């Protein structure tokens, strides 16, 4: 087991503050110029905007309907950003950037205590510059907040059990026991049960005394009471107000059903499709953790060698990686970013291997510089070019002078959450979904109206349109379906 390093080998508070600032700037680059990408980003951002407008911070709503997909932490964070910076794309993504920067700080500080200051810096850089972090630190979704609190819980859990097994310092044990419970609660409030991953890390990493209920019963009870108490402050009012639907849908559909059946086409269908998908995360990690995945084989061998010692930090971190990859491998629904909670542990393990294997510093510097330059070029040059290809944003810009607050809003044959987020900048009305049979009657109703539809749908209804109405056209790239789409907007003044 690695001993703690002396204070002289730790990273100072000033250095950690500079790391946070640098990481935050790095993760914010380009966020102001890229529209929210369908479908998850607009759903989270719009739900946060509606939460702020309603003044209801218990039950999220999207497009005027209850949204049970995720717990509320990301919505609370985005509401704070909207209050500070206004309701825009940059503010919607800011919480993820802040959380990613805080993960880097946590890894630097924790890594310095475990393996030395140089390894701590490397762990922070490795996490911050791997591809999946670069993407999700810029995404207005719940993942990075969950990763932050999973990392903090894992750190607090390690310090708690380390204090119990090495020093026997009861005061220190209780301090980190309480921190562990709080971090678990916020990890759960970020994205549900996967936030409890650090519990498994403690139980299966071989800490002496972890499974001794009599000796540590009071501390385990305290962890449970703190974690459940924090979650209950939101969970009980949410369950009462929704008559249990938040749990039934949020856990039943989005956790249980996602585990046993593919959702939204993510995962193989049938038993053969499921079996074929089992290696999914062991393949995608080479892209997700790039460029540092290049050194994963050496890291894994090194970690397994060190993990033979019960209670070693390598065993603890490796347990987190194995649990995370194992859990999501068994689920039917699969997306590359699901294993993101394991990336802080991988970053620490790679940093430890780099130190013990005496790898060249020049190689590390070259990899870091290459990723940083590629990210800068992509965010400052590539992102503005890509932003011009979003058809919903192009349509809105053309139509903006014609839109009014009291205008009704509908869609036909094109139903993406980005429409709700974008058009409700100027409209108070929520989106109404129409079919071809219902469109003429909807347009005939009194008052100003606008409807977004595909060009093929417009061709069918064109003969029924009043010549006084305005029709706006836009074409661009559908980011989810990966094909070009042609849209139109009918504006009835």
Principal-axis shape: globular
Mean pLDDT: 91
What is the number of strand segments?
Answer: 7
* Tally of helical segments: 22
Can you give the helix content as a percent range? 55-70%
H-E string: HHEEHHHHHHHHHHHHHHHHHEHEHEHEE
- Describe the strand arrangement of the main beta sheet, using strand numbers: 4-3-5-7-6
Structural class determined from secondary elements: alpha/beta
What's the end-to-end separation, in Å? 73 Å
Task: Provide structural commentary.
It is a single chain. This protein has 493 residues and is an alpha/beta fold. It is 62% helix and 8% strand. It contains 22 helices and seven strands. The strands form two sheets. The chain has a five-stranded mixed sheet. A two-stranded antiparallel sheet has the order 1-2. A hairpin with a 2-residue loop joins strand 1 and strand 2. Helix 5 (117-129) packs across helix 17 (343-356) and helix 9 (197-204) packs across helix 16 (313-330). The longest helix is centred in the middle third of the chain and has 29 residues, at 213-241. It is globular.
């Amino acid at each position: 087991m690695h001993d703690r390093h002396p204070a002289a080998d730790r990273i100072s508070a000033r250095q950690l503050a500079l790391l946070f600032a640098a990481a935050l700037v790095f993760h914010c680059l380009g966020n102001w110029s890229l529209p929210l990408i369908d479908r998850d980003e607009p759903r989270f951002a719009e739900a946060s905007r509606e939460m702020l407008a309603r003044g209801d911070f218990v039950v999220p709503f999207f497009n005027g309907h209850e949204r049970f997909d995720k717990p509320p932490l990301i919505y609370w964070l985005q509401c704070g950003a909207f209050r500070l910076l206004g309701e825009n794309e940059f503010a919607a993504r800011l919480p993820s950037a802040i959380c990613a920067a805080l993960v880097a700080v946590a890894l630097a500080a924790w890594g310095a205590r475990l393996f030395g200051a140089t390894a701590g810096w490397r762990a922070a850089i490795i996490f911050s510059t791997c591809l999946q972090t670069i993407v999700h630190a810029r995404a207005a979704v719940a993942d990075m907040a969950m990763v932050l609190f999973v990392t903090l819980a894992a750190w607090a859990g390690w310090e708690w059990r380390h204090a119990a097994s090495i020093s026997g310092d009861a005061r220190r044990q209780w301090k980190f026991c309480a921190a562990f419970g709080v971090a678990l609660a916020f990890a759960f409030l970020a994205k549900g049960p996967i936030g409890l991953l650090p519990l498994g890390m403690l139980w299966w990493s071989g800490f002496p005394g972890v499974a001794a209920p009599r000796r540590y019963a009071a501390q385990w009870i305290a962890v449970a009471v703190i974690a459940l108490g924090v979650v209950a402050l939101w969970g009980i009012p949410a369950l009462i107000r929704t008559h249990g639907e938040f749990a039934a849908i949020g856990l039943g559909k989005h956790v249980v059903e996602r585990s046993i059946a593919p959702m939204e086409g993510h995962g193989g269908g049938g038993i053969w499709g499921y079996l074929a998908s089992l290696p999914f995360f062991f393949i995608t990690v080479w892209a997700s953790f790039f460029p540092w995945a290049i050194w994963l084989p050496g890291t894994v061998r090194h970690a397994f060698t060190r993990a033979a010692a019960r209670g070693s930090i390598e065993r603890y971190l490796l347990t987190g990686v194995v649990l995370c990859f194992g859990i999501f491998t068994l689920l039917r629904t699969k997306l590359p970013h699901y294993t993101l909670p394991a990336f802080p542990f991988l970053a620490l393990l790679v940093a430890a291997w780099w130190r013990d294997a005496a790898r060249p510093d020049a190689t590390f510097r070259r990899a870091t510089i290459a990723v940083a330059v590629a990210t800068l070029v992509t965010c400052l040059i590539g992102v503005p070019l890509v932003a011009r290809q979003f058809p919903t944003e192009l349509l809105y810009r053309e139509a903006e002078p014609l839109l009014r607050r009291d205008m009704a809003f509908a869609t036909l044959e094109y139903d993406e959450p980005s429409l709700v987020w974008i058009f409700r900048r100027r409209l108070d009305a929520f989106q109404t979904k129409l079919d071809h049979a219902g469109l003429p009657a909807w347009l005939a109703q009194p008052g100003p109206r606008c409807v977004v539809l595909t060009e093929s749908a417009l061709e069918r209804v064109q003969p029924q349109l009043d010549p006084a109405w305005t029709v706006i056209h836009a074409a661009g790239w559908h980011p989810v379906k990966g094909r070009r789409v042609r849209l139109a907007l009918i504006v009835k003044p």
